[in-house]
Amino acid sequence: MGLITELLKGLRVTGRTMIRTITGRERYTTEYPYQMREKPQRFHGRHVLNRYPDGMEKCIGCELCAGACPADCIYVRGRENDPDDPTSPGERYGYVYEINMLRCIFCGLCVEACPTEAITMTHLFEMSTTNRQDAIYTRDQLLMRPDGSVPHMFPDDELADEKDLLTADGWVRATAPSGIAAYEGVQMWQGTPGPASWDPEPSQDERDRRSGTDGG
Amino acid sequence: MSWALWGIVVLRVVLVFVLLLGATIINVWAERKILADMQSRIGPNRAGPWGILQTVADGLKLFFKESVTPKKVELGMYMLAPFLAVIPAFLIFMMVPFGAPFTIGGEEVVLQGADLNVGLLFILAMSSMAVYAVVLAGWSSGSKYPLIGGVRATAQAISYEAAMGMAMVAVVMFTATQGEGGTLSLAEIVARQDGTWFGIVPRWNLIPQVVAFVIFMIAIVAETNRAPFDLVEAEQELVGGFHTEYSGMRFAMFFLAEYVNIFSMSAIAATLFLGGWNGPTWEGTVPAFVSAILPTVWFLVKTYAVIFVFFWIRATLPRLRYDQLMTLGWKRLIPAALTWIMVSSIAIGVRQFGVPWG
Fold first, then answer.
1. Which of A4, A7, A22 lies closest to B37 in CB terms?
2. What average pLDDT does this structure show over B111-130?
3. H helices of B279-321, where?
4. Residue from A136, A153, A167 nearest A41 by CA
5. How close, in Å, is residue B3 to chain A by CA atoms?
6. pTM score, two decimals?
7. DSSP state of A132
8. The predicted structure's pLDDT at residue A216
9. pLDDT tens figures, A88-133
10. Would the CB atoms of A21 and B37 count as touching at under 8 Å?
11. CA distance A129 to chain B (A)
12. Does A27 sit within 8 Å of B316, measured CB to CB?
């Protein structure tokens, strides 16, 4: 008889789960290509090379990102700016800039190493290609357009998330410098062109309040 | 035999065949959907509305796949086994009446593949035959996992068929008291469950034979090699068990046989214990064709209720260990079935002849 009662106990669990799933109370699946999840603000996606609001490139070709890269996937060559028609405000600009996305581990050390906030990470993560050559992103694919949008590998694809394309510079904007409380809510970020203007990252307390958890 | 009679017989057989294939398509999909719901998932939803064509897509895929024949197989048995699985599965359902008999042009048509007077024995025989398919598939594959699966199938089938047969004995004994003489014909067993007790309780065998019903349910789950008794195919231990070495259409036939067996066995459970196609038809108050079709609807409702329990149990219970399976079969179910036969026959005897000291 113990056998039967144990069986009924188990059946109760699955039966309840079924009813809750059918009524939608316990359905957790996000049907991905059709429903996108809200990504965390500090999400490490593919990189972007930013511009200043006046259209100048931020990259000065210093190669610090390449030096910081633990996976050795960044290749940069700098070149002197033309004094009459400068590409960047500094002496030099990055005229070759390549990132091998197959080697990149998306650690974000390049972003931290960059002295001018030129390289940042977007929220884009759909980067599958059908050959290795396409996985090496060149300057053309990485550099932000003058209007502030990010070039996408597959602009016509339904996976191209327009919102994420426009908000190019994800997590640098989100980071309060050194985590110092005094910088909470302060925008420490030099702007980029286009509509990409986010509010500064909310404080930890604020985020806990919004997500309704105790931070655990 | 007139041509019309022939036509009716052929039509019946084709009808059963189509019903089983259609039911299988629905059942595979329904199982995946229900399992998904019970596990907070979504389940197949790509092919057709709510993914209902998923089985058709899977079937087509298997149909066009290569049927690989490994080098070490015993070719004759290897080829024969899938057919041995499918044929008994279909034959079992031939015995089940799935609707009320009706008259067309002076000929009475029974909605049943064939009404044998030894229907129940035929069902037992065919479900034993189905085991041969598993054993032969396991042995002829010339590979270790299928062999273990096949050996397990033999032992499992023997243990649980005994319990299943004895549960049926109790029903047959009870049915004999419900009319003139005993019967093994399923049509007759259904007919004797017509009506109600005290005006409200349906005269189903379930109520007086509830213990037999529980034993029968456990036994048919084991008989169809379904979780938690699916030691025969046990994916985690035996890869795929007896069908490890099968692919393409031959694998599809095993798959088909499994689901046809589920449907047939559930139909038999509904027939023996839940009154088969009996149910209110509301003749006169609803259009004539509705009352004509209602018995079949009742039959399907009852069958699917049993099938749902199959799926429910699969979603709930983990697989039994082999010795637990044997313990449950020999030490619990068979003694329980024997005891129930004794209790049941004493009760029947007392009702017919009075107490011996009275």
1. A22
2. 83
3. 288-316
4. A167
5. 51
6. 0.78
7. G
8. 43
9. 888 888 889 999 999 999 888 888 888 888 888 887 888 888 888 8
10. yes
11. 24
12. no
Q: 3-state DSSP call for residue B350? A: helix
Higher-pLDDT residue of A58 and A211 is A58
Contacts with B152 (C-beta within 8 Å, 6 or more apart), sequence order: B231, B232, B241, B322
- B331 phi and psi angles, rounded to 5 deg: -95, -20
**pLDDT single digits (tens) B220-257:** 888 888 878 887 777 777 777 788 888 888 888 888 88
Q: Strand (E) positions, chain B? A: 99-104, 107-111, 196-197, 201-202
Query: What is the maximum alpha-carbon separation in chain B?
Result: 73
Pick from A168-182, B178-192, B247-261: least confident:
A168-182
Q: How many residues does chain A have?
A: 216
Which H or E element spans position A78? strand A74-80
Alpha-carbon Rg for chain B, nearest whole angstrom, is: 21
Q: Which residue is it, tokens 């590998």?
A: A153
Token readout for B316 is 């709930």
Q: Which has the closest alpha carbon to B214: B185, B257, B177, B171?
A: B171
User: Does residue B200 register a pLDDT over 90?
Assistant: no
Q: Residue A52, exposed/middle/buried by CB under 10 A (0-12, 13-18, 19+)?
A: middle
**Interval B150-166 mean pLDDT:** 85
Residues of chain A with C-beta less than 8 angstroms from the C-beta of B328: 3
Cα(A124)–Cα(A119) distance, rounded to whole angstroms? 14
* Nearest CA among A101, A97, A109 for reference residue A50: A97
